[in-house]
Predict the 3D structure of the following.
Amino acid sequence: MANLLDRAVESFKRVGEGLKTVFMHSFREPTTQEYPEKIQDLAPHFRGRLALAVNPDTGDHLCISCRQCERVCPDKCIEITAHKSPETNKLELIDFKIDHGLCMFCGLCTEVCPTTCIINTNDFEMADYSRESLIYDIKRLTLTQDESTYYFDKKELPRPKPKAAAKPAAAAGAAGAAAKSAAAGGDAAAKAAAAKAAAAKAAAAKAAAAKAAAAKTDDGETKAEPKAESKSEEKAAEPKADAEAAKKDVVEAKTEDITAEPKADAEAAKKDVVEAKTEDKAAEAPEKDAKKDVKEAKADEKDPE
Amino acid sequence: MNAAEIYKLSRLAIFWLSVTFGAVWVACWGVGVFIPSLITGKMPFLLQVDNPSTTVVFIADLLRSLTPILSLLVFIPINAMFMVLFERRSLALFTVRMGPNRHGFDGLAQTAADAVKLLFKEDITPRGADAFMFTLAPIIFFAPSIFGALPLLAAVTNNHDLFKVANLPTGIFYILAAASIPVVALVMAGWASNNKYSLVGGLRSAAQAISYEIPLVLSLVTMCLLAGTLDVVEIVEQQKGGILNWNILGGGALSGYDKLAPYWLNLVDTSFDTSAMFGQFYPVPWLSSIMAFVLVICTVLLFGLYLTGACAEINRIPFDLPEAESELVSGYNTEYSGIKFAIFFLAEFTNLFVVSSIATVMFLGGGDNPIPKWILDRLPLEPISNALGSLLSPLIKDLMFIDPATFWAAFWVIVKVYSIVFFAILVRGTLPRFRIDQLMDFGWKRLIPLALILFVVVVFARTWVVCHG
Amino acid sequence: MSTEIKSTELKTDEMIINMGPQHPATHGVLRMLLTLDGEFVKHAEPVIGHLHRAQEWQGQNRTWFQYQALIDRVDYLSGMFTSWAMARSCEVLDECEVPERAEYLRVMVSEMNRISSHLLWLGTYLIDLGAMFGFPFYPFREREKLLDLFEEIAGQRMMFNYIRIGGVQRAPNDAWLKRLKAFTEEFEDRVDEYEAIVTENPIFLKRTKEIGILPLSLAKQYGVTGPSIRASGTDMDLRKTKPYSVYPKLEFDVHWLDKPEGGDTWDRYILRIREMRESNKIIKQCLDMLPTEGELSGKKQNAGLRVKAGEAFSSVESPRGILGCYVISDGKDKAIRFRWRNPSFCNLSVLSELLVGSPIADIMAIFGSVDVILPDVDR
């Protein structure tokens, strides 16, 4: 009986201690973060949505179409379309697609990128209504110069060297046909924004041409094309004249593409597509191709091996 | 220091409760006082009729008699809404969170939004279920909490004229009878759902309710024994005059001390012979005092016993076995959705309010002010109450709108009931759940013997002390 | 008369119940096929495979570099340990030296991960026992702080990809170390609070004492490891019995209970609590001893990462027990074979014996106490 009483008292004490501990918690500051109002400052290396950076100093697109990211991606969610320019004999980026619905945000692509072009942003609010809209094309992936500067500073990445100065070939390409050179992004110093819009459109036009040649039907691509035009953010900010000039450029580029060298272009695109396909399957091919590509692009970055 | 959140919660409580009780009171006054007086021509300053026709008088009486049930029908849903919010916000306080604070002022509209959502949800009846019983169960579960609470109305409103009609001489008996009905509904719900988990949940609740009703009833019976009556209004009446008169402190065993304290403290005429009066309350000098304190211990234990039994009766943690999530998914309401689930939910919170009100009435003096009367009388409150009285006299006298005594009774009842609710929430935030066999073990081998022992001790001890009864 | 009554005891049919895979308390997608005799379990059969993702096969079809990013998903609550087990077996094959700084960082993040895993277990276990609304938030609050730290150093909160073959991915900065130090200093108090609420709570004691008793011999037969076997009377902890990394340089105790007749669920609970305190001590020491300068990786981290030909097995002590990784390489960019030894799988298998004879209400208390992560079982 006394034992029972002791136990009862002991139980009461323990329960009371628990109740007291819980109750005293009500005098502590809540740990809740009121999310949409107050967004926590994310860590610099947080692996959020993928994006393509431009050179923070010059605004050049940093991608050199080396396909390293495409190859290393465990989910195969990156798709790069590039062709070899017949004039400069260099790879030119036509389109860059990332299916964020497939992506698992491992960040391997950002680790292998030789030019720190592809980076993980701090953006994680990517909910959308369809799987198709999770496929980001080059237009949606490319950051503005300001955003690139922000991420380069936040992640403490080394600033890339300006492209035009270092590579005369690229400069020549840019001078040769501003509208046509999709990857270089046109004349960097002068009218970066206008050229960029033009470049993107030219890329779309070229992609369409390549598609036609390769007889490839891809829902995601066809849908992405009109979107790129309608969704261009720069359009609103730009003066109309610029936009019109860009449009004219595109038309020029298109006609040039189609009239002057449709076959060569189409064949190049076709080759690229075939290459991309074989690369997926072949086990040893990636390494070799990477070397080749990198050599062609004349990037001074590290070798994959 | 988390002052901001505590302040927000109390602000919320004050705002919502005043709105709720204001709305209920306006509704009651409108139906029970204003319209009957108007049509029978008894309203001061308004059209006076000398001899109203019998039909009019009949309608006026009907309205008056409907007032108690109307007040509950208005009060229960609004109050349950607030209790859900109060529970969520309090749990958030205990767990260093913020709780719902988006909808409306400080999350005020959260439960309203939830309720609307539940109403618009598809009402699913599972295949193979007994559709009639399945629909009937939530109704049977909810109904007793309305009509069971009726006799309490007069007790918590200082026996106000409007609610007198709902009082019963055997109030406690009636309340306990009503409180034991919901278990039938739980078994019905469990059986009708055609789901093994629901069935087990329903049967568990039956076993649990039957086991825990015994200590619950025994503790209330002991209190009735001390009070000498089953009438809740009378029980409240006995406890008036400050905390020392409350049933939780010996059921009136300390009333003598309460009465004599002003003399001992030289607050009044010292020539008064206190020993004679002391002898009236405590016939055998030393033994009576000891027995008075034995009674105090007994009644405090009985209060704990009542709360434990009530927790089990309304399926709250740590006795929420019928809906034990980790074992039975959701117990008897696994298959319920939409409005039927909403009714179960509503009834659960209403039951919590009802058992807390019973505890208030039976143990905590109902609407009594905790400060002893002899202190209250000496506080300089008279000018304030006079000023307020003259200010509010048009309301009180002319419109018969508000009665100060009723107001204070309701105020203290709310404070006490919500303190008990707060404690129940604190327990919910702390304790894990019993196992079903341990629950039975605890009920039958610990609580029931304890209740019986206390009963015997109280019967013995009260022969030496003059209690309320 | 009385003998007659005994011989005609009331007999009811056995009932077969499917607990899961959609049951709220089965920690993911375990299906338990229970044969019940009244309230009591007569036969229990865990049915696994709902979460099978062919993790081993994926390892054979991904390059080394790619697979490193995938294996955090094997046991999502302690990703550091799966990474570490793989890294260690690959390092054995490759004969590559791991820099000391990287070793300290590995120990540090792994012990943080052990704490965060145990914290999650603690919260969910109390939910299993019915304390649903208050207590579980406290361990999750501390875990959140650890996850914030992980987010900063590894880039993500659960899928770290931080420990790499040859070293670690990134060095912490001073602010991070300071935050971790602050965490370790307040963590002891927090554990004291948990204990004040839970450890001696009479209802908790009633729910966990004397149930799910796991005798040492049975545990050994099934290959149970981790805190579950240490509660049953052995001090087997790889960090002490087969020390790896810089553990020999650190001072810590391995908690175990001398109970060869078997530890109950409460013993397993208290061991995890003590382990959290020990891990906290280890982190504190690592913070003091961490070299400020030095290499982070003994191997270059890039897509062409390769491991020399051969086969190797190595294991680490994960929060759930011994986590082993067996690997065969032919020196090319992909492994020939990966084989994982997952502690959860063995801990789960013993359930079919542990549950027999216990009432339904104890199933979750016992199941929760062996700490099983279903993706770790199914891979």
